[in-house]
Amino acid sequence: MHSDKNKEVIDDGEDIEVADDINQFPTGLGRKYSPVVAHDVNDSAVVEMTSIHPGSSSSFPKHDLKKVKVGVQPNMASEEREESLANQSINGPQRESKLELFGFDSLVNILGLKSMTGDQIQAPSSPRDGEDVTITFEQPKPTADKSGTWMGVFMPCLQNILGIIYYIRFSWIVGMAGIGESLLLVVFCGSCTFLTTVSLSAIASNGAMKGGGPYYLIGRALGPEVGVSIGLCFFLGNAIAGAMYVLGAVETFLNAVPSAGIFRETITRVNGTDIAEPITSPSLHDLQIYGIVVSILLCFVVFGGVKMINRVAPAFLVPVLFSLLCIFVGIFSARHDRPAVGITGLSLESFKNNWGSSYQMTNNAGIPDPNGKIYWDFNALVGLFFPAVTGIMAGSNRSASLKDTQRSIPVGTLAATLTTTGLYLVSVLLFGAVSTRDKLLTDRLLSATVAWPLPAIVYVGIILSTLGAALQSLTGAPRLLAAIANDDILPVLNYFKVADGHEPHVATLFTAFICIGCVVIGNLDLVSPTSTMFYLVCYAGVNLSSFLLDLLDAPSWRPRWKFHHWGLSLVGALLCIVIMFLISWAFTIVSLALASLIYYYVSIKGKAGDWGDGFKSAYFQLALRSLRSLGANQVHPKNWYPIPLVFCRPWGKLPENVPCHPKLADFANCMKKKGRGMSIFVSIIDGDYHERAEDAKAACEQLSTYIEYKQCEGVAEIVVAPNMSEGFRGIVQTMGLGNLKPNIIVMRYPEIWRRENLTDIPATFVGIINDCIVANKAVVIVKGLDEWPNEYQRQYGTIDLYWIVRDGGLMLLLSQLLLTKDSFEGCKIQVFCIAEEDSDAEGLKADVKKFLYDLRMQAEVIVISMKSWEAQGEQQESVEAFSAAQQRVASYLEEMKEQARRDGTPLLADGKPVFVEEQQVEKFLYTTLKLNLMIQKYSRMAAVVLVSLPPPPSNHPASFYMEYMDLLVENVPRLLIVRGYHKDVVTLFT
Questions:
Q1: pLDDT given for residue 93 in this prediction
Q2: I want to staple 763 with a disulfide (CB 3.0 to 4.6 A). Which of 116, 346, 887, 910 is the partner?
């Protein structure tokens, strides 16, 4: 196997050149794992390992080669050793790997580290003998500063949630609804956002996220049409909310400093209460002028990027928190320090009087008036208060700027939600006990009235809280729009595309234009409910996404956030719909109609995209009905289900009336998550189809009955063919429909072939494996099937993976599926990787751990260096097996040579010409011996061992390949030999 190419050809034909400057590689990609020189057990074994030095300017250094001698024959002349070493040095990278038999394609390629920094590239699995496989890296892209949980999620969510409603309308709500119903109101609205946060946490922790926040999550779960329609509505909601916050800040400022108004104020006199006071409202033109100026200033801050926003955000949040502290201090000291009309201090009498509701008519200013035109009830208060609990998506909107989305979004969003909900509940009790009901209903700034030591502190808190919320809205909305544009679904949005690591300046300008347009309108009484509706539409989409993914429970659904259930997500979605209709059925219809129009436009004009959404997964579970919808395209890794084709025909005889090995059915069930999926049980009857058709029908009924008895979800098929090889070749080509074709061939390892002298088995076995490779089917061969546990036999210990070649993640996924079964749930996973130098071990271990973390898989990583592999001693039993295999191979080879001399033909095996290089055969035997010794050393107590299946060398006889395999499985009681195919079955992204 050669590895001297300077570029790697990706599936789409793009060439990626090797980077010139190694120093510019990031930590995860700058490490170089060099291939190892192959050696033969009978000749000199000089392993030449190259390491890239920091100062080198080439990926393949031409000097300072590090030479390590392993197992040198003492009788070898020094001149021969020098010549051998010189030849290897000249060849440089053109040398064979120790693991050539397994199609070893370098450790970096095994890990697929390129896929950790972007979309996964479909790359072939282990190559056939003689193929060239290399791995290269493109120049790394500059990465922007990333935010953590506190600055990236908690603070933006807290600033968005804790807004103007709390300061200027919350005490009024307590006066109108009473303490009892106000508590119910907070719990009702808070439950909606809490359940949405739980759903958001589940989806966000199910893999790495790109930019776009809730749009990215909804689109990947419900499809591009739904994602884009809800995402654009949520973008509009954020942009309009920014205008609402700006107007709230300006209005509060003009109320606090009336002299700052340029135009005359509007004065509204009130009546109908014991405390009749004038209420002043700023001029519309003042709101427009100041609002435009403030919007432009905030846009300049947003243009500074996330780094600038993180610096400015504390300046907005700290005074807000200080103002809250002043309010609570003022409430506890209200009666003693500053007695005022209507302020009773904390009083049980006031608490009792304010417990019940007092719904009534009010004027436009919200002051009780018998002649007023507005009547308030609980439903109307839901619409007024609900904007005070929105803002939970502020952190996820900035998902592209977070260091660890899987941790930051759940922790930060949930912390902000619980903090603000607790604050609201406590405030209901305190406001209800500190003043009379008339004071609650007439003093819109009661929070400022009771604040200690000065009301001005609360005015500052109101202005900064609203400006902070506006800043977060103007930050999240452009990034959301840019993420939608980058997915290239709608061509009309191409103007808003932005490169990775760059700020969305065009999207920011567009957001500012919408925000300023709403500020110019000045009256958001018609627009604000629509903004709230858009938030609720987005929340419902997040809940429905989590509901669908949780209900389908595909193998890719492994969120790190464990506190979720499809029932909670369904309740959250229903709550969102109910709240929408409680607020306004008219605005609900308008919002849903707008989302439907966008959906229709995307479905007509948008480009198709396969994001592995939940609906595709549902199609798999509704197989026949949805087969036409699935088509014949490649399956996305998130929608990948194992569909095993279980080869029931044994290498020997089964008891009468037992059409399939009992443990094969048990193993097929172990490959499904919670029993979901389909298995195809196939057996072959030798003979002529016309003569044995009835026998095949009877055998099929018998096999179906047996599958039902074993409670295995699957179907039975019987094929009549002249022999096993021809029958299997027909099966592997034709079995299944569309994407419901079997993708894994499961069969038993022929352990009996030598014991019972079944000389036809090697050719059949190798032919089946080759047919699977040609048909691009994965292969799982079970050795020790008689010892495989049933569902009642609990296993303890470990599940050990010897990850030698890149297999699309199949071996990792199989180990995870085994853990979902009762028999293996007490086991832990160990991943063994081979490093080629001791210095590579720690770096490789860190890379594998990061890779497994991003895949949401928990496993212990063990790195074994080549030196330790070579240094380990051989067990007597294994050495004897190795010697016996050598003797048998030599005998086979001698027989073939003798037959060729007699017939005057080239070497023939299994009816085909072969070319046998004796040194290569010795090397393959030695490779499998060392791997077998490693398994016996480290996996003695393992419940099951998984190892890569080496492809049969095309120029070796089948009997030779069986010798390699027998040596590999020697003294390993329970072994799964796995080979992937040209598709990834796991993905890093949500």
A1: 43
A2: 910
Residue 426's pLDDT is what?
95
pLDDT, residue 405, reads 83
Contact 714, 678 (CB under 8 A): yes
Which residues belong to CATH 3.40.50.620 in the chain? 638-783
Alpha helix segments (H runs only) across 904-987: 918-938, 958-969
Instruction: Write the CA distances from 199 to 379, 395, 555, 856, integer angstroms.
Output: 25, 15, 18, 17
Q: What is the phi/psi pair of residue 756, to 5°?
A: -100, 10
679-686 and 374-375 beta bridge pairing = unpaired
Would you say how long the chain is, in residues? 990
Q: H or E segment at 318?
A: helix 305-332
Q: Position of tokens 């604050």? A: 423
Q: What are phi and psi of 187, to 5 degrees?
A: -65, -40
DSSP SS3 for 49: strand
Question: What CA–CA distance (Å, rounded) separates 676 from 679?
Answer: 10
- What is the chain's Cα-based Rg? 35
CA distances from 663 to 487, 626, 648, 817, 830 (A): 46, 32, 11, 17, 24
215 CB contacts (<8 Å, ≥6 apart)?
Answer: 227, 228, 230, 231, 234, 235, 480, 483, 484
Contacts made by residues 372-376, CB under 8 angstroms, sequence distance 24+: 372/272, 376/176
The whole-angstrom separation of Cα 626 and Cα 439 is 63
| Cα–Cα distance measured from residue 557 to residue 549, given in angstroms and rounded to the nearest whole number | 7
Q: Per residue, what are the HEC states of 870-912?
A: HHCCCCHHHHHHHHHHHHHHHHHHHHHHHHHHHHCCCCEECCE
Query: Could you tell me how many helices (H) and strands (E) the chain has, helices first?
Result: 33, 20
First to last CA, the chain: 36
Residues 6 or more apart whose Cβ sits within 8 Å of residue 563: 198, 201
CATH code of 638-783, in short, is 3.40.50.620
Each residue of 89-105: b (16+ CB within 10 Å) or e?
eeeeeebbbbbbbbbbb
Cα angle 269-273-279, degrees, rounded to a multiple of 5: 25
Task: Determine the Cα–Cα distance for residues 281 and 287; give it in Å rounded to an integer.
Answer: 10
Tally Cβ neighbours within 10 Å of residue 397: 30
CATH 1.20.1740.10 fits 168-268+281-605, yes or no: yes
- Residue 47 phi/psi, 5-degree rounding, is -95, 120
Q: Mind listing the pLDDT tens digit for each residue in 688-730?
A: 999 999 999 999 999 988 888 888 888 899 999 999 889 999 9
* Residues in the chain with pLDDT values less than 70: 1-100, 102-145, 211, 264-281, 335-339, 365, 397, 523-527, 606, 608-634, 636, 639, 674-677, 836-840, 866-877, 910, 988-990
For residues 135 and 806, the answer to whether their CB atoms sit within 8 Å is no
Parallel, antiparallel or unpaired: strands 279-281 and 266-268: antiparallel
Distance CA 196, CA 193 (A): 5
List all residues 6 or more positions away from 472 whose beta carbon is below 8 Å from its beta carbon.
156, 159, 160, 313, 391, 394
Q: Give the bridge partners for 975, in sequence order.
A: 783, 945
* Helix, coil or strand: residue 207: coil
Of 859, 863, 867, residue with least CA distance to 842: 863
Distance of CA 785 to the CA centre of its chain: 34
CATH 1.20.1740.10 maps onto the chain at: 168-268+281-605
- Is the pTM higher than 0.85? The answer reads no
The residue written with tokens 């942009």 in the block is 239
Whether the link from the prior residue into 319 is cis, omega within 30° of 0, is: no
Q: Which two tokens stand for residue 12?
A: 């789409």
CB neighbour list of residue 786: distance below 8 Å, 6 or more residues apart: 663
Kindly report, residue by residue over 908-930, the tens digit of the pLDDT: 776 777 777 788 888 888 888 88
